[in-house]
Amino acid sequence: MQQQxxxxxxxxxxxxxxxxxxxxAERKASAQAKVLAGTSAEQAxxxxxxxxxxxxxxxxxxxxxxxxx
Length: 69
Known about the structure:
The protein is mostly helical.
C-alpha cells in the first residue's frame, strides 16, 4: 500500500510538471500570436497608407498631364 502511495505521488508530480510545461508553452504561443497580430495590423495600416499615397500621386499625375496637354 505504501509503495502504491509513493508511486501515485510520483505520477502526480510528473503530471504536474507536464502541466506546468504545457501551460508555459501555451503562454509563450499566446504571446507570439499577439505579437504577430500586432505586426499584421501595423502592416495592414502601412499598406493602406501606401495605397492612399499612390492614389494621391496618381491624381496629381493626371492633373499635371491635363495641364501639359
